[in-house]
Amino acid sequence: MADAVGNKVAKDYHLDISVPQDGFFAKGLGNTDWGMKNRLSRLFNPISGNSMMLAFDHGYIMGCTAGLERLDVSIAPLCPYADVLMGTRGAIRSCIPPTANQALCLRATHDSSVLFDDMSQGSGLALDMEDALRMNASALAIQCFVGGAGERDSLDALCRAADAGYRYGVPILGVTAVGKEMERTSKYFLLATRILAELGASIVKTYYCDEFEKVAAGCPVPIVIAGGKKLPEADALTMAYRAIQSGARGVDMGRNIFQSQHPIAMCQAVGKVVHEAFTDREAYQFYLHQINS
Q1: How many CB atoms lie within 10 A of CB 47?
Q2: Which of 64, 108, 61, 67 lies closest to 86 in space, CA to CA?
Q3: 280-292 and 263-276 helices cross at what angle (nearest 10)?
Q4: Mean pLDDT, the chain, integer
Q5: What are the residue numbers of the active site?
Q6: Share of the chain above pLDDT 90, in %
Q7: What does the pLDDT average to over 177-202?
Q8: Is the pLDDT assigned to residue 74 strictly greater than 80?
Q9: Quick one: pLDDT band at residue 132, thresholds 50, 70, 90?
Q10: CA 60 – CA 66 distance, rounded (Å)
Q11: Which terminus of the chain, N or C, has fewer Cβ atoms within 10 Å?
Q12: What average pLDDT does this structure show over 217-221?
């Protein structure tokens, strides 16, 4: 077993060397089977290689958070402007029309609610693969608390989900949750993202941070960033732009879209950054044009 004592700090991420494609556009996933590649091609645009995910899974720990009081009113109209819908099976079944043709990433863990001081108490699987397949899911999202009290349980849930995912050709999105005592630094995210990828996650979701290019380079599978707390629209677009420029293969935004005064315009603007190489300034000008036209 590796000993942490005397471990040398990583320093060469070979940022000047591109990752081999292995005959498939998604980083590190060229050796997976046809079914998984097909689902990945729904999650990520094969042309840009990126993904615009719309997250509305907040209710499973937060209840009726602002902007998600009526999912049928606030989220259903946004579906055409996203590549992937990130939600719980209950929310999707009850509030999203089955005619929606976006890829589904189902939140597949249950975690401590906001009633707890520290939500990093671990995750358990909240659905089985049969139900995910019934819903035509393209991926399952597993929340993991690396460094938190619930680390062991959440990583166990990730491993069991990855086993089922490889069995049925369903990618697993490992989510690096940040608990009360965890630091939002490149040092932490380098550790957390690498652990999730090495344990079987096909995609990793994490937060944008300083030196993000190292985090993206050190993770052997595609990384998407979490939108996090609500920011002014210009700032949220800047975060998305910097993340994509630093190696992220997409964004999974929720509050920065559905809590915007103009959610459809914001969703479209983020998509311009993700898929059309818009700068943050160009995307913000697009946003202003949409709301003023």
Answers
A1: 8
A2: 108
A3: 150
A4: 91
A5: 205
A6: 76
A7: 87
A8: yes
A9: very high
A10: 14
A11: N
A12: 97
Residue among 39, 56, 9 at smallest CA distance from 203: 39
Whole-angstrom distance, CA of residue 262 vs CA of residue 29: 36
What's the rounded Cα separation, in Å, for the pair 150 and 28? 28
The CATH superfamily assigned to 34-228+249-258 is: Aldolase class I (3.20.20.70)
Q: What is the pTM of this model?
A: 0.91
Amino acid identity for residue 173 in this structure: L
Length of the chain: 293
Please classify residue 166 by burial: count the beta carbons closer than 10 Å to its beta carbon, then call 0-12 exposed, 13-18 middle and 19+ buried. Answer: middle
Which tokens in the block code for residue 89? 């099976």
Query: In this predicted structure, what is the pLDDT of residue 292?
Result: 95
SS3 124: strand
At 182, the amino acid letter reads: M
Domain parsing of the chain, residue ranges: 34-228+249-258
